[in-house]
Design goal:
The complex is a heterodimer of chains A (360) and B (335).
Chain A (H helix, E strand, L loop, with lengths): L1 H11 L3 H14 L10 E3 L2 E3 L1 H24 L7 H17 L7 H28 L4 H19 L4 E3 L3 H8 L1 E2 L2 E2 H18 L3 H10 L1 H6 L4 H27 L1 E3 L7 H11 L11 H20 L7 H16 L1 H14 L21
Helix pairs in contact in A: 2-13, 3-8, 3-11, 3-12, 3-13, 4-5, 4-6, 4-11, 5-6, 5-11, 7-11, 12-13
Chain B lengths: L1 H17 L3 H20 L8 H26 L7 H18 L4 H25 L4 H19 L4 E2 L3 H8 L1 E3 L5 E3 H19 L1 H11 L1 H6 L4 H27 L1 E2 L7 H11 L11 H21 L5 H26 L1
The chains are: A mainly alpha (360), B mainly alpha (335).
Organism (chain A): Actinacidiphila epipremni
InterPro entries (chain A): ABC_transp_permease (IPR001851)
Membrane topology (chain A): Multi-pass membrane protein
């Protein structure tokens, strides 16, 4: 009895389905890679599948956190991939021009310039959306298209390679036995969680996303909140760009961060944040991003033929979205009740789906 | 007396600025301006040759068809991100069926079109009946069809079928010594059909009504579900047709064909004056949008020294200019 109520409470938690999906995906790996959950210490670094999921997933987590706040204000940011490319290209350009590529000061300068560029991109998006009132999807489409061109302009259409140990720390280096990127992600996640959930900022963002005009009338500076969200999102993308370029020690204006905006939006939606705005769940987003990264890893470990990767991914995405759709759960449940017999349920539909509240 | 005339003058002015055709006229005007610039600057290089203009249609016919499909979806206030992948998939499917299975093109083309339309139908069904955002559903479609391309073959398949070759090489002569390709003629026919459907049929009115306000359309008793699903079916069909034209244009199937083409299509629609909020827009505008995107490429080719990435930057800048113009006009309509 007590257990049943505990179960129901857990099932109603908004992180329940995303976390279940994540655990299921992770468990799927075990039959194929027996030591999947093992983490061992080698040369003072932690190694293991779980560590590499987090390491390779960290740029996506960062971008998705920024994207969550933008989506919470009722917007969307398609330009993050372009910002990733611009920031990586600029940082690599600055580092490669230096006589001593290892110098910490030089790398920090590169970081500062790259983040400043990201800040400008974010401010530009914010200006278009908040001041000029352009639809977010279009406003950020401009930078999505032009940004790739700008990134290629910075690298002159080449792939710039750098050879700098200090630069490779942020994306591929280790600190205290853990990937350094993990600390950056943890810091950004903690910072954004603290700012939005320990102060009124999160409430204000949700108010703006719910109804920008109404929130302006009750005295919230809706425009400023929106601009802040886009700037924050672009900064996250900028850091992600540094990570991606540092991981491979190269900047590719054409391919760095390609499609990351789609993955990030997917992560946000899987995490339970509605695209219509007004609500957001940072925890869900992080889980969503981990699901996507785990999915990618799973595809490799269980030996899905590489050419079927995308099909597999699309099918999983559709199943996850269908399970989360209240309309789908209602229909699946009603169909079952009507026929009052065991009918083949669509894969992934939970038995008690109709009881589940829409995540709130 | 003066007040009356001033009011009259004012209403006339607002009426002009409220005219929904204005964005299309602005786009057309800009096209003429850009073309004039090209004619002036590259006069010595034969820019004014009729064929340069006709090449815009030959090189962008497939984009025009895809953009026409996207126009339908965008007028209802939705979005279709699967366009580029579906085009890539169609080129792959056609190449595979024709080359590896030895089917005649006449049999393959209907299959490809049916697959595209069915894909659009499925996406529309999920979007409407399960109330999942079009953005997410068509994004899954984007992954799915790009993935199917790779399942068919990881390598590019070149087509050496004589029918395809003949169709691709056929020139449709025009007065004045210039010519069009079959693909260009087909794309113009699609444009004409789309124009007729959107402006002279009940279906067209429903598309606009749903884009204007879906709730109202439902309360008026319009078949919202059928229309919405039909719109995505049209887009899927147009993508498949565009894929066939692209196959003719490039004579091969490649899993990486038309990557990101959905953005070009959406950009063309927006530049053509269709509002992404839905309810307002013209396919003729889309034509000019496509022509302008094509003209940017042509101008950069004629310039010769500019690198390809300037195309992207110019497209972005142009997109920005158009959105500002649109924004200024919709703001005035609101007050």
């Amino acid at each position: 009895m007590n257990l049943a109520s505990l179960w129901r409470a857990a099932a109603q938690h908004r992180l329940f389905w995303p976390v279940t999906a994540l655990i299921a995906l992770l468990a799927l790996n075990v039959p194929f890679t027996p030591g999947f959950f093992e983490v061992h210490l080698k040369n003072g670094h932690l190694y293991g599948s779980l560590v590499s999921i987090v390491l390779f997933g960290s740029p996506l987590i960062l971008v998705a956190i920024g994207m969550t706040l933008v989506i919470a204000t009722g917007g969307i940011d398609l330009s993050v991939g372009a910002v990733v490319a611009i920031s990586g290209a600029l940082a690599c350009l600055v580092v490669s021009k230096q006589a001593d590529q290892d110098s910490v000061a030089g790398v920090l300068l590169a970081f500062a310039l790259a983040l400043a560029a990201a800040l400008v991109c974010g401010a530009w998006n914010g200006l278009l959306v908040a001041r000029l009132g352009i639809q977010p999807i279009i406003a950020t489409l401009i930078l999505m298209v032009a940004g790739r061109g700008i990134a290629q302009l910075i690298t002159s259409g080449q792939i710039i390679t750098v050879n700098s140990d200090s630069y490779s720390l942020i994306g591929g280096g280790y600190w205290l036995a853990l990937p350094f990127a993990l600390f950056v992600v943890a810091f950004v996640a903690a910072l954004s969680a603290a700012l939005t959930r320990r102060t009124a900022l999160g409430l204000l963002i949700e108010a703006v996303g719910g109804n920008a005009e109404a929130s302006r009338l009750v005295g919230i500076r809706a425009r400023r909140i929106k601009v802040m969200a886009y700037v924050f999102c672009a900064l996250c993308a900028g850091v992600a760009g540094l990570m991606i370029s540092s991981n491979v020690s190269a900047a590719d204006g054409n391919n760095a961060g390609l499609w990351i905006e789609l993955d990030a939006i997917l992560a946000v939606v899987i995490g339970g944040t509605s695209l219509s705005g007004g609500r957001f769940h940072l925890g869900g987003t992080v889980v969503g991003a981990l699901i996507i990264q785990t999915l990618t890893t799973t595809i490799y470990t269980i030996g899905v033929p590489t050419q079927a990767n995308l099909v597999f991914k699309a099918v999983v995405v559709i199943i996850v979205c269908l399970v989360q759709s209240p309309a789908f759960r209602a229909k699946a449940f009603r169909a079952r009740a009507k026929r009052s017999g065991p009918v083949p349920r669509p894969p992934g539909t939970p038995a008690d789906a109709a009881h589940m509240e829409v995540s709130s | 007396m003066t007040t009356i005339s001033r009011v009259h003058w004012k209403t006339r002015r607002t009426r002009m600025s409220q005219d929904r055709r204005l964005p299309v006229l602005v786009t057309a005007g800009l096209f003429v301006l850009m073309f004039g610039f090209g004619a002036f600057r590259y006069q010595a290089y034969g820019f004014l040759d009729g064929q340069v203009f006709m090449n815009l249609f030959i090189d962008n016919g497939y984009l025009l068809v895809a953009a026409v499909g996207a126009t339908f979806v965008i007028i209802t206030g939705g979005i279709d991100l699967s366009v580029g992948s579906l085009i890539g998939f169609t080129t792959m499917l056609t190449a595979w069926l024709v080359e590896k299975q030895g089917l005649p093109l006449a049999a393959v083309a209907p299959i490809a079109l049916a697959v595209g339309a069915f894909a659009g139908y499925l996406m529309g069904y999920v979007i409407h009946h399960f109330e999942i955002e079009p953005f997410i559903v068509t994004l899954a479609g984007l992954f799915f069809f790009r993935g199917l391309c790779l399942v068919i073959s990881k390598e590019s398949i070149s087509i050496s079928d004589p029918t395809v070759d003949r169709l691709a090489q056929t020139h449709v002569p025009l007065p004045g010594g210039s010519f069009l390709s079959i693909a260009a003629v087909v794309s113009l026919a699609v444009l004409a059909v789309a124009f007729y459907v959107l402006h002279h049929t009940r279906f067209g009115r429903r598309v606009y009504a749903i884009g204007g306000n879906e709730q109202s359309a439902l309360l008026m008793g319009l078949p919202v579900a059928g229309t919405k699903i039909a719109v995505y079916t049209v887009s899927g069909f147009c993508s498949a047709l565009s894929g066939l034209l692209f196959t003719l244009y490039i004579q091969s199937g490649d899993p990486l064909h038309a990557v990101g083409l959905e953005l070009d299509a959406i950009a063309a629609v927006v530049v053509g004056g269709t509002l992404l909020t839905g309810g307002s827009g013209y396919v003729i505008g889309t034509l000019f949008g496509v022509l302008i995107l094509g003209l940017i490429k042509t101008l950069i080719q004629f310039e010769g020294t500019l690198s390809s990435w300037w195309t992207k930057i110019a497209t972005g800048v142009l997109l920005f200019a158009f959105i500002l113009i649109q924004r200024a006009m919709t703001a005035r309509r609101g007050t």
